[in-house]
Structure formats: structure tokens, C-alpha cells
Amino acid sequence: MAKGGSSNRRLAAGGRLGLSSPVMELGSFWIAFGLTLFAGLATGIGSVIAFMAKQTNHRFLSISTGFSAGVMLYVSFVEIFQKGAVALTQAYGPIQGTWLNVGFFFLGILVVGLIDNLTP
Q1: Number of other CB atoms surrounding residue 11 within 10 Å
Q2: Which residues contact 96 (CB under 8 A, 6 or more apart)?
Q3: Contact, 13 vs 21, CB < 8 A?
Q4: How far is the C-alpha of 78 from the C-alpha of 86, rounded, in Å?
Q5: Residue 25's CB: how many other CB atoms inside 10 A?
Q6: Is 24 helix (H, G, I), strand (E, B) or coil?
Q7: Could you count the other beta carbons within 10 Å of the beta carbon of residue 105?
Q8: pTM for this structure?
Q9: What are phi and psi of 56, to 5 degrees?
């Protein structure tokens, strides 16, 4: 057992490679792993329920898709966009970092639109 007991055990991603990476406590790792596993299993269970339906309810499908799009827009604008703004302004300064953040956000929208048009 490690010095100081099991509470001091830590998991460092890339620690042996000499990469600078955040250190995650083992308990936090298992919580994150469990939540990710639950989300994956919920996706599988949801798809099984969809295949069991005898007919397609287009109204429900439209409402569900709109709700999902709203959730993704919220996550994009409130969570990811803000974290990107903080990281880029720290790295490139307030003006250039803000322009890079906004530019890459809209570039991502453009790439998704191109992929949507190019795939059947």
C-alpha cells in the first residue's frame, strides 16, 4: 500500500510519459467512469425502446429532436464556449483570444454543415 494509505493513491494520465497532465484522484475517476458507463447504457436502452415501437410518432420525434438541439446549444454556448474563451484569452490575449474563440466556433458550425451536405 502506498505511503499515507489508500486515500493518497492517484491516477495520472500520461504520468510515465513525462506529459504535463492533471492528476485525478482515484475516487473521482470511478465516479466519472460510472457516469459515463450509465450514459452509454442509457443510450443503448433508449435505442431498444425505439426499435420496439410499432409506428413512428412524428410529432413526438420532432419535439424530442428540438429539445435535444436546445440542450446541445445550451452546452455549446454556456459551457464549452466560455471555457474556450478563458483558455484562448489566457494563451493569446483578450482580443486575439476572443476572435479565435468566435472564429473557431463558427468554423465548427460550417464544418458540421458541410459534412451534413456531403453525406447521404
Answers
A1: 13
A2: 88
A3: yes
A4: 12
A5: 13
A6: strand
A7: 16
A8: 0.49
A9: -90, 125
